[in-house]
Design brief:
The protein has two domains: about 160 residues, SPOUT methyltransferase, trefoil knot domain (Alpha/beta knot); about 90 residues, no CATH class. The chain is about 45% helix and about 10% strand. It has eleven helices and seven strands. It has a seven-stranded parallel β-sheet. β1, α1 and β2 form a beta-alpha-beta unit. α10 packs antiparallel against α11. The radius of gyration is 29 Å and the shape is elongated. The chain starts with 17 loop residues before the first strand and ends with a helix. About 30% of the residues are buried.
Length: about 280
């Protein structure tokens, strides 16, 4: 999903988990992992013995502009050195290991890491090479294993997918974005008076057109129509458009409606200007 907006405030999580890529094989894959990190404000990239060395020019285009992560990347000879300053480390792997170690889901892992980082402790995530994943010696250094619930017959995901999945779960533990909302842009919500004018206008024209053929059902029909528009959470601009539609369908417009619509449009523009000034 494209959606980069350079006018928005940048979100960086300096207390977020370190992303530790062990033995990464391709610069392109490192770049894609870097892009995934920066999508969620993570910038602490640690590379353990990357196969093709570092810096790797192939990572730059794949990072898609996440230069801050590339520039801050640190290289280590061993996993032990890469995690030396971390208090809690989690190993991402889909394979069963011959060791007794707690296994958590990405969501549980993110919640644990958030709690630790909020108390001032440093956390990290281990990711193995693309071909074979983490070695048991690396997993043994972790406090727990992170295992993604997947199709058991096809549980392998690529490096960037694993990084973005864990980064996303981490980000969600600290976001306050509502689960559902409707952007209002530079619009003005319609007032009850605006809606009642729409209702009266619509019902008057429908009466003229003979829509209410059965008087005993008129109240139910008008109530249904009002509920439709009330649920829509119309803006003033949308009410103005609907009234123009009703008038055009009924009479093809006319001087009286044109003047009233111009007044509604002027009111909408004035309200938008006041909102901008605030």
């Amino acid at each position: 999903m494209a959606g980069t907006n350079s006018t928005e405030q940048e979100i960086i999580h300096p207390d977020g988990p370190a992303i530790i890529l062990i033995g990464a094989q391709l610069g392109e894959n490192i770049g894609k992992a870097v892009r995934a990190m920066y999508n969620f404000g993570l910038t602490d990239l640690r590379l353990v013995a990357p196969r093709d060395g570092w810096p790797n020019p192939a990572a730059i285009p794949a990072a898609a502009g996440a230069d801050i992560v590339l520039d801050k990347a640190r290289v280590y000879a061993t996993t032990a050195e890469a995690i030396a300053d971390l208090n809690y480390v989690y190993a991402t792997t889909a394979r069963r290991r011959d060791m007794i170690k707690t296994v958590v889901t990405p969501r549980k892992c993110a919640a644990l890491m958030r709690g630790y980082s909020d108390s001032g402790q440093k956390v990290g995530l281990l990711f193995g090479p693309e071909k074979a994943g983490l070695k048991n010696d690396d997993v043994a250094l972790a406090d727990a294993i992170v295992s993604v619930p997947l199709n058991p017959a096809f549980a392998s995901i690529n490096l960037a997918q694993a990084v973005i999945l864990m980064s996303y779960e981490w980000f969600q533990t600290g976001t306050d974005q509502p689960e559902e909302y409707t952007p209002q842009l530079d619009t003005t919500p319609a007032s009850s008076e605006d809606l009642h004018r729409l209702y009266d206008h619509m019902e008057r024209e429908l009466t003229e057109a003979g829509y209410f053929r059965h008087e005993q059902r008129r109240s139910t029909m008008t109530r249904n129509l009002r509920n439709i528009f009330k649920r829509s959470e119309l803006t003033l601009e949308e009410v103005s458009t609907l009234r123009g539609v009703v008038k055009a369908l009924a009479t093809g417009g006319g001087p009286g409606w044109i003047a009233e619509k111009a007044a509604l449009d002027a009111q909408a523009k004035e309200n938008a200007k006041e909102n901008d000034d605030e």
